[in-house]
Specification:
Layout (H helix, E strand, L loop, with lengths): L1 H24 L6 H32 L2 H7 L4 H38 L1 H5 L11
Helix pairs in contact: 1-2, 2-4, 3-4
Keywords: Membrane, Proteasome, Transmembrane, Transmembrane helix
Pfam families: PA28_C
Family: Belongs to the PA28 family.
Length: 131
């Protein structure tokens, strides 16, 4: 779990840097706060998704305690079927989380590629060309 919090802190730092970059790019416009809110909302939804994903793994490992029952009573097929159903449900949940992660990162990629010129060459660097 400590690795999760360390990587979360690094992600918070990167998102903060990205939000500062976005707000500095659009500081002369009214919409700079809108870009900041968009990036913050994106991160908040991603963070809540990761927390629920970790919760799913905890629940899945807690439910696998039924394996002890299978070892104790190998002739009962209901325990085996229950474990197979739990594994299938966990696979579906992991697949959904991976698809959500793909969607979040494709959104971030889209934001960055649409603003790549503004990121490489901020508006303030063009001010010396006017004079």
């Amino acid at each position: 779990m400590s690795r999760y919090f360390t990587s979360r802190a690094k992600l918070l730092t990167k998102v903060g840097e990205f939000a500062v970059l976005i707000s500095s790019l659009y500081s002369s416009h009214f919409g700079s706060s809108i870009y900041f809110i968009t990036v913050y909302a994106w991160f908040h939804s991603y963070d809540s998704m990761i927390q629920s994903f970790l919760g799913l793994f905890v629940i899945a490992f807690a439910n696998h305690l039924y394996i002890v029952q299978v070892a104790k009573y190998p002739h009962v097929d209901d325990y085996r079927r229950a474990i197979l159903d739990m594994d299938e449900k966990q696979f579906i949940n992991v697949r959904l989380v991976v698809l959500e992660m793909r969607n979040h990162f494709s959104t971030l990629y889209d934001i960055i590629t649409k603003n790549i010129e503004k990121i490489k060459k901020p508006r303030n660097s063009n001010m010396d060309m006017l004079y």
